Description:
With 293 residues, the chain is α/β, with parallel strands linked by helices. It folds into two domains: 2-138, Rossmann fold; 192-289, Winged helix-like DNA-binding domain superfamily/Winged helix DNA-binding domain (Arc Repressor Mutant, subunit A, Orthogonal Bundle). It has ten helices and 14 strands. It has helices at residues 2-9, 29-40, 52-59, 78-88, 103-111, 124-159, 164-167, 218-229, 237-245, 251-271, and strands spanning 21-25, 45-49, 66-70, 93-98, 116-119, 169-172, 187-190, 193-195, 198-201, 206-209, 212-215, 235-236, 279-282, 286-289. It has a five-stranded parallel sheet, with helices on both faces. A four-stranded antiparallel sheet has the order 8-9-10-11, with no helix packed on it. The protein has a three-stranded antiparallel sheet with strand order 12-14-13. α2 links the parallel β1 (21-25) and β2 (45-49). α6 (124-159) runs parallel beside α8 (218-229), α8 crosses α9 (237-245) and α8 crosses α10 (251-271). The longest helix has 36 residues, at 124-159. The protein starts with a helix and ends with a strand. Residues 1-17 and 165-190 have low confidence and may be disordered.
Amino acid sequence: MVGFQMLCEAGLMTVDGQDAYILVVDDEGAIRYSISKTLQRVGYQVHAAASGEEALDMMNRQEYDVVLTDIRMPGLTGVELLAKIKERAPDAVVILLTGYASLETAIESLRLGAHDYLVKPSSSQDIRQSVSQGIERARNMKHRRALLHTIRNNVEELTGENLEDQLMEPQMQASAAAPAAGGTPVVTPVTTMTIGPLTIFPGRYQISVGEQPIDLTPTEFDLLLYLAAHRGRVVPCSELVREVRGYSLEEHEAREVIRPHVSNLRRKLKASGQNPNIIVNVRGIGYRLAETS
């Protein structure tokens, strides 16, 4: 287990043992070549673009797990490229590289949703580690969407109701927003899901009980989603670690990893006035979501 973690942290193994696609964007050919080789050596599928415009064109034809881009480039800068990528794919993982670091640029990059901000010259180890963490984040987001799809299907089967309208329920904000061209009110999509007393906000790592919001860590959020997707059965801790954290452990080791996350989740539920025993511990087997939820 320790060996697996060390390989992942060093960027020597991709998450889930699958090839990952990386796009390197830099106007300097030598830097593109160097970074590409650094990542190819550890098994990633690497493509390169000489400009932000070329990168966007390539992204129309290929899905990438991580985009690694320089900031100072002719045409689209790295920060402008980041903004355009986030417009198209809010969950995209983008790492910025710069030889001209500034606090203002770093803050703006993180505000726009950059995964990481590296200063040139960055070591091969730093680049691989940042990319490895970015891939894990990208895979977790895809996994979360799959969990939401499973939850929706399960709830529809149990209730006989179509949740499509609930998942993409438009919130009319005509009184608060200016009308669009032609006088049509502005409509903001609100993506939520309700399971029992809980309202789930997939894009925010947040749930709420009534009007009380509860902020969760990514692991707590994914743990709750996975239990919700598989409610009706007890989920072993080893399965939770594998599906939520992305690596494998023996059951007794997995129990020690999952227990503090469940404890924190229960504490947050209790603080909101919700019964913390919504997550049921079945001794010696694992956890399940209470049927009443």
